[in-house]
Amino acid sequence: MAEQDTPAALPGPAQPVGAGSPRVFVAGATGFAGALAAHLLWRHPRFELTAVTGRSEVGRTLADLYPRYRVPLAIEELDLDRHAAGLDAAVVAYPHAAAAPTVGALRERGARVVDLSADFRLTALETYERWYGEHPRPDLLGDAVYGLTELHRARIAGAAIVANPGCYPTAAVLGLAPLARAGLIADVVIDAKQGISGAGRTFDETTHLSMAGENILPYKVAAHRHTPEIEEQLDALDPAHPGLAIQFQAHLVPLDQGELASCYVTPTTPVAPDELRELYRDAYAAEPFIEVVERPPGTRDVCETNFCRIFPATDAHTGKLLVFSAIDNLWKGTSSQAVQNLNLMFGLPETEGLL
Amino acid sequence: MAEQDTPAALPGPAQPVGAGSPRVFVAGATGFAGALAAHLLWRHPRFELTAVTGRSEVGRTLADLYPRYRVPLAIEELDLDRHAAGLDAAVVAYPHAAAAPTVGALRERGARVVDLSADFRLTALETYERWYGEHPRPDLLGDAVYGLTELHRARIAGAAIVANPGCYPTAAVLGLAPLARAGLIADVVIDAKQGISGAGRTFDETTHLSMAGENILPYKVAAHRHTPEIEEQLDALDPAHPGLAIQFQAHLVPLDQGELASCYVTPTTPVAPDELRELYRDAYAAEPFIEVVERPPGTRDVCETNFCRIFPATDAHTGKLLVFSAIDNLWKGTSSQAVQNLNLMFGLPETEGLL
Amino acid sequence: MAEQDTPAALPGPAQPVGAGSPRVFVAGATGFAGALAAHLLWRHPRFELTAVTGRSEVGRTLADLYPRYRVPLAIEELDLDRHAAGLDAAVVAYPHAAAAPTVGALRERGARVVDLSADFRLTALETYERWYGEHPRPDLLGDAVYGLTELHRARIAGAAIVANPGCYPTAAVLGLAPLARAGLIADVVIDAKQGISGAGRTFDETTHLSMAGENILPYKVAAHRHTPEIEEQLDALDPAHPGLAIQFQAHLVPLDQGELASCYVTPTTPVAPDELRELYRDAYAAEPFIEVVERPPGTRDVCETNFCRIFPATDAHTGKLLVFSAIDNLWKGTSSQAVQNLNLMFGLPETEGLL
Amino acid sequence: MAEQDTPAALPGPAQPVGAGSPRVFVAGATGFAGALAAHLLWRHPRFELTAVTGRSEVGRTLADLYPRYRVPLAIEELDLDRHAAGLDAAVVAYPHAAAAPTVGALRERGARVVDLSADFRLTALETYERWYGEHPRPDLLGDAVYGLTELHRARIAGAAIVANPGCYPTAAVLGLAPLARAGLIADVVIDAKQGISGAGRTFDETTHLSMAGENILPYKVAAHRHTPEIEEQLDALDPAHPGLAIQFQAHLVPLDQGELASCYVTPTTPVAPDELRELYRDAYAAEPFIEVVERPPGTRDVCETNFCRIFPATDAHTGKLLVFSAIDNLWKGTSSQAVQNLNLMFGLPETEGLL
User: Fold this and answer.
1) Phi, psi for residue B147 in degrees, rounded to 5
2) Shortest CB distance from D285 goes to which of B5, B8, B290?
3) According to DSSP H, which parts of C43-142 are helical?
């Protein structure tokens, strides 16, 4: 698959970019998340994508590596001084622990950063170190804002570093936030299912179609790194009930992009169906990307969009509250949420380039 | 798709059937469950498959309707007197409520019956009627044994009517039985995922590849008919904690055959990892079709087999117990379990024709 | 699946529509093709989508039927006078033979029409009648232009009726046009493969995931209605070799949207690799939606786009020419090509709303 | 995914093996082909599987690596003297060029060999060397018989080395043999489609579900190694028309196991539909694993079986003959055909262990 592909005429940006547009580049554009971020920024009417870098595939165009994204820029080796010159912002799509040093270097050169790794998602340093090991740049933790747009809009707008949420926390926290804010969560089980793109550009038994196909596979049982991220966010919304220990479990299912969080909540107090519906309608009435619906959402409903589709329900039999939250793990769960945050950071309409 | 297909030479039974073999027929062989039962009986070394009947496709061979099952018998209209003559047993694969009258008529003509419907699964008539409406033959309820082989082996061997379990209860109850028997379940959430074959030969939005593909879809939220079936079985195993209300939720995921029940149990008392493992090893040590494993099971591991693969785990963070139970919904969840039961009913080795 | 779905706030058009925008409606929006056309027009910056009609699902919103398309208009019964009032154009997505009367009625009320059926694709009436039976409106055949944009751009711009091509002819004719124009096709085999969406919103054995999944199925062997459509187009490009009889064969493969035509051409005269490449580069150098590439195209490369990706190759062993042409059958093969044609018909940039 | 998996009780052979059963081992059992061969031999009633070897995963059980195959033997490093001691036969599942030396060493220790590689498939050494480079053991070429069971049954029964065919040649040659034998092929295009298992246990862009899924991809355009293998076989069947140059093209489609060869034949003389059908019926009337059918075969029809399903048709429009030939690429295309050959080599019924 190494042959070079040279279409007759590589297209210019999908949309003419206005003068004075914010200049953005993507570091780590060879992975699924970085490549999609580059695609969304390339076709965005208001950002100028200045470069894409990668630690492999240097010299190949991104369009050659990901034909359907059609970004004709060549993949370059990262050169901090050159790539940060005149830059307004960067999207960093590096693995955990590898991201922080680059984020720091970009900050020192004046760029604002949306970081797709976990490095700045947790405010408590000790929690980070329990799950990921030593933090390369703990000094920057205070500069970072957690990038779940709907929860931290105002702070994101002014942030130097936006820690883009994990895809599982995005679905789970958006699904549970109205309950947490109302102090209604006594106990919760989150059973999450995700397509294979969640494993990224990883080539192994979990991604081979002849192994992942026709399979349903739980993974990281009783030990998922996203647990503390979800707990920190829910705790912050419900200071009256600190220390909620959530049960989070991830599963791989045989599709490409899509993620569903099924949340089973034991409420602190009984909630009537109408109350529950109203709680969610009110919470998200003004949100352009949250759809509160009246029937179970399928992940197809949000595929390749920045939407999160939420269905809250009550179970009269058990008294539990059920919330189903569907997103595209690569879009709202990762890269389109990064663009949503960039829109906010540069004073653009939040939906720009995302509808 | 209606052309008749006539392979050069239709094969005889895959295995030579011994003289004096029990004679079995399948009523309702045009659906997924009945067709697979016919296939398993046709290639079984010890049963004689005498006929297959259906309410549609009469005259076509089953091999024409389901080529990969290669059962060359023609589909006939049901003629109770003719089909029951000299019969030892029947598999009835009819929809709920439609099954009971035929089961009754077959009983009256002397045949033993494995019924794949829900009609005889619940011992409490009022529970049946709450979920399914009036019961056509309540008089027969006392003759029926619940056909979860591993739990009711002795009674199945002598039963007149075996009520073959639903696929969800099969996975869930096998996964939870050791905990129930030990009185350890204080509360449980069962999040089940199933392939599209679970919808059967139904042609609609839930089965169309362009709608079901690339989708994860919860369905029957807070109202699944399998809930009382699971509760009855767990209650019977744990008389000390009657009235457990389980939270059961089903999801469709885009594969053909496969089902995973992820069970999240709040224990009545803390359980150590070693204790839990030992509990499961002991419970299933002698079972030919239960595999207690040490890592998360994928549904591929049991695809097109009668195995149930179970992984119990403890979560130190929440104190909950996690049990993952994987089966093939059409095999162990339905048709191969029916054959496992027939083996028992006719004194054959339980694994005959199933390995 | 019949519950009504009412998101909190149905969005307005994805893009603000300018004053004086052409007004378009879609007749037959409940099928895959019509629904996608409605989606593309709804989010289009320059068209106003005035209504969507259907013969079923009346009263439901299109967003409820196809959540991911997010078109909040309610499906109406067709009322020719009302729907044609003030209308500039219509997209008609009806089955063959059912379309022509409505196309005619709309023409008589002054609307220009893009017809997605086969009713106006063939210029020879006797060919139509051989494959489809009596033509309901043969009087209109002369008003129709074949809507393969890249071949008939000028005539489409002024057409009263545009007969949007079938998806197979789109891929095949775009793949073969440079060879036909150069008089190079002595004989050709076209082996086409398509995802299940090609069967449309049809619920049967060909679309059920448990039957279509894990399957590769040839269909309409030696009798595909698209054969004469391809032959007419190739004949018109190569008047020196009239009467070419093509071998066309379709196959269903288990994916949703995607189509590949693999064309095996016996050339009238040998062609060198460089010559062949140059022929294709030259033919499509100015085309915004045709990508001539140097390695085999996958259908993923064009999924959910209006692009057609073509790879021509020579086989030194046989002397044959090979052309692989990939499209999304629902987009370039149907609905986005309809929008590409509408752009032309109303003097808009051809790529408007499609990048 | 490296955790060791220890089910409660590993099963013995699925079937009791008779005394004096031929002893067979599988070299290279960690790949898809070797693992399936081991599975089929383990559950076979008449062979004793003595060992499985691999160049990786040594010490792990094969059941741990491929749970669904349930072969409890530990993977060993190959020790020729030890593994060949008392051995009757070996299945060698190594890559091309790597296989021949091991095949030779096993021969020298007295074992008969079924080789799954290409090393002994071509009788002409120069053809082998053109496609694969230098042959490691050309001295053994004369001892090898091409293992397409239906064509070379008598010679396979007595062979020292059986060169098991490639999966594409299996489907293509079985599909075309009746025509070749009748001298009817003037020209032929073979368009083959295969599931992802054809790529084997290879972890790259061609097998990642998020890249291979929803894709149709032609590969090895105009340069497929299976071309000479097919040509040699067809030439041998039709000595009157030597030197036929076939056009063969492979495609990957998103399923696991399944392969369809669509063959488009220009006949040397016109053939009537009845004649064609009779030709195929006659050719395969006595074959237990060939099904000549009257409608297009889907690969599902033969999935996980040793059957080859063939549909021949005539096209009145072009005069061409069409033949569709469906197999499971891993079963009849590879490992179950190896067992079919072993059955022959040891005087067992050809269908033993395969129905």
Assistant:
1) -90, 35
2) B8
3) 62-65, 80-84, 99-108, 125-132
Check CB contact of B186 with chain D, cutoff 8 Å: no
Residue B8 has pLDDT above 70, yes or no: no
**Phi–psi pair at D182, nearest 5 degrees:** -85, 5
3-state secondary structure of B274: helix
Going from the C-alpha of D50 to that of each of B200, B355, D80, D337, the distances in angstroms are 42, 20, 13, 20
Task: Report the pLDDT averaged over residues A294-303.
Answer: 98
Contacting residues of A for B245, CB less than 8 Å apart: 317-318
Check C67 against A214: CB less than 8 A apart.
no
**Best mutation site among B194, B216, B303 for testing chain A: the one with the most A CBs within 10 Å?**
B216
Q: How confident is the model at residue C225 (pLDDT cuts 50, 70, 90)?
A: confident
Residue B225 is predicted with a pLDDT of 84
CB pairs under 8 A between B and D: 70
Radius of gyration for chain C, computed over Cα atoms and rounded to the nearest angstrom: 20
Tell me the chain A residues in contact with residue C303 when contact means C-beta distances shorter than 8 Å. Answer: 68
Instruction: Give D256-297 pLDDT, tens digit per residue.
Output: 999 999 999 999 999 999 999 999 999 999 999 999 999 999
- Of C222, C255, C326, which has the smallest distance from its Cβ to D314's Cβ? C222
The one-letter amino acid at B27:
A
- Reported as a single tens digit per residue, the pLDDT across D47-103 is 999 999 999 999 999 999 999 999 999 999 999 999 999 999 999 999 999 999 999
Q: What is the mean pLDDT of residues B92-108?
A: 97
Closest approach of A247 to chain B, Cα-based (Å)? 7
Rounded to two decimals, the pTM is 0.96
Instruction: Give the separation between CA C255 and CA D77, rounded to whole angstroms.
Output: 40
Closest residue in chain D to residue A68, using alpha carbons only: D211
| Environment class of D74 (CB within 10 Å of its CB; exposed 0-12, middle 13-18, buried 19+) | middle
Q: Could you give the domains of chain A?
A: 23-164 (3.40.50.720), 168-329 (3.30.360.10)
Q: What value does the mean pLDDT of chain C take? A: 94
Chain A nearest C-alpha distance from C302 (Å): 6
pLDDT at position D22 over 90: yes
Yes or no: say if C275 and C200 are a contact pair by the CB < 8 Å rule.
no
Nearby residues of A82 by Cβ (< 8 Å), 6 or more positions away:
none
Contacts 24+ apart (CB under 8 A), A219-224: A219/A250, A219/A251, A219/A252, A219/B296, A220/A250, A221/A249, A221/B296, A221/B311, A221/B313, A221/B322, A221/B324, A222/A249, A222/B313, A222/B314, A222/B315, A222/B316, A222/B317, A222/B322, A224/A168, A224/A248, A224/A249, A224/A250
* ipTM (interface pTM): 0.95
User: Chain C residue closest to A1 (CA)?
Assistant: C295
* B57/C contact by beta carbon, under 8 A: no
Q: Choose, out of B189, B271, B302, the residue to mutate when testing the contact with A (most A CBs < 10 Å).
A: B189
What is residue B18's predicted lDDT score, i.e. its pLDDT?
Answer: 61
If contacts are CB pairs under 8 Å, which of residues 207-266 in chain D contact chain B?
214
Q: Of C11, C43, C281, which is closest to A8 when you measure between CB atoms?
A: C281
How far off is chain C from B212, nearest CA to CA, in Å?
7
Chain C residues in contact with B31 (beta carbon < 8 A): none
Which pLDDT belongs to residue A16?
57
Q: What is the CA radius of gyration of chain B?
A: 20
Please tell me the distance in Å from D125's CA to the nearest CA on chain B: 38
Q: Considering CB atoms only, which of C214, C256, C297 is closest to D214?
A: C256
| Residue C9 in this model has a pLDDT that exceeds 50 | no
Helix (H, G, I), strand (E, B) or coil at A230: helix
**Average pLDDT taken over every residue of chain B:** 94
| Res D4 pLDDT > 60 | no
